[in-house]
Design brief:
It is built from 20 helices and twelve strands. The structure holds adenosine-5'-diphosphate (ADP). The site of adenosine-5'-diphosphate (ADP) has 23 residues, from helix 13 and helix 14.
Length: 599
Amino acid sequence: MTAFTPASTSAKDAQPSAALDTETARRVLRAQVAALYATTWSSTLADTVLAWALCAVFYWRLRDPMVLVWAGLHLFQLLRYPLFSAYHRDPQAAQRSEFWARRHSRELLLYSSIWGLAPWLFMPVDNLPMTALMMLVMLGLSSAGIPSVVPSWRSVLSFVVPMVAGLITALAWRADAVHLFLAACSAVYLGATLHFARQQHRQLTDTLLMRFEKEALAEQLAQQMAVTQRASAEKTRFFAAASHDLRQPLHAIALFGAVLEKDLQGRPEHTHAARLMRAVHALGTSLDTMLDVSRLDAGVIVPELQATPLNPLFQSINQLFASRADEKGLQLRLRASPLWVHTDPALLQRLLANLVENAIKYTPRGGVLVVARARPAAVWIDVHDTGIGIAPEQVEQIFDEFYQVNNPGRDRTQGLGIGLSIVRRLSELLGHPVQVHSRLGGGSRFRVLLPTALAQELLPAAPAEVAREAGVLPRRVLLIDDEADIGDAMAALLGCCGVALQVVHDEVLASAAFTEAMAQAAPFDALVCDYRLADGADGLDVGLRLRTRFDPQLPLLLVTGETAPERLQRVRDSGVPVLFKPVAAQALLAALAALRRAA
Ligand code: ADP
């Protein structure tokens, strides 16, 4: 016996189903079978009423005992109804769709054959009105029942063919012209009924196929998205771990280098030290760029939107890039603008700096122009260049991480391929869309769309610039860091600046240092903690605990090479100032001075 498959009645039907994957085919079959059994109770009831009414009329008019024989046969078939209804009690029905499809068609074959016997048993030979009544009932029944069996083509055939074939053959058997004519009409009716039933069946099957294919596609998409999200989380974790491991030694190198540079001041070897520091600085910048991505992904950076004049922003970008443009012989122009926008100035500066840096990098000759234009309720900042341009098919991808158009060998000197991915993140964070218009060989224009500053933001007089106090460094600092190298390097650096640094490796030693300092009446002015201490101890918790215990007012500074988003979030939530490794000597001194001022 061939297996029941949806739309499985001909080679033509079999083609689309062959292309389907088996899971979709199974789902279609399940839905078809459920539809077949959904109507069994109401159709059996209607059929029984019709059959008994027919028997009553025929027996009343003809008194033919064969009517009672047929009624008995119909009753026998009716008693088999529990075989149908068992479907609704079968807990495995969904898994046994083929079995139930076969049973449905078998039971219909028996039912239809019993109906097919009716004209043979009690259709009168010479009573045209009664013959017409029988034809009316049987042909009417065959078409009225089609909708409830149309989900399965096999059930359609089992339901219609034996019944109508019984009628046609019984009519033809009478062999006179009238009956032969009626037989021919019934045969045409049978053909037409099957034709329309077939069309309905195909439409229904196609609809189900489309529905389940769509569902399967949606499921696939959801799975792929889950895989992508897992991969992205994995990438962030890897990034964070690698970045942390690199930061630790680089931090020490930066601090030692700064000490070395100071020591060699005025000697010929100083140039080497200065070069070394430049290389360290470049490496630190690369790591910072990666850290920027981690922090933007982690949502650690929260924009502080405010009314911002564009002119000072343009000036500082000009200062940053003027010498680089000059070295390449390019003209860099940032056209002065009186416009104000509603943005976070520091983040907007980073966004624009990335665009201008690229514009200079990818422009061999000509120039770069940055210009702001006022639009109703908006300001556009355009960064134009006369550079190499970007092919249309690349424009979408250049904002992806590590995507570089012409750097298959990943030459570091040509960049990391991260700049524009940071631009994308910043643009999303600030809500400033970035548009690109570029032509290969014909230059590029990156446009940032910003909201103009709100009127009420501009009304109050701009506060006077806060005077910058000279940073006063704390005198005694306690550092908790389990890495001896870093402790030594920091001690050397701070020592040069007159800061006495005591280094301890863990909380217990730190407690002892505090107790001793208090006993000698020489308390610490600041506490600096590494975030990740030995044995998994958490520098933030340790610092906060020590502060609560010994001096709740003591300024606390965290230093970390951590880039894992959830940990960064934790540090941010604590409100404790943090420096990211590798910390440049100047940044460390500035942070310590700021701590002192805040205390
Ligand atoms: P990177 O500059 O470090 O390679 P980015 O993410 O900043 O990485 O840029 C990605 C790619 O987009 C670059 O490799 C470059 O091919 C292309 N690109 C970016 N800005 C420009 C520009 N102004 N002109 C031409 N190409 C550009």
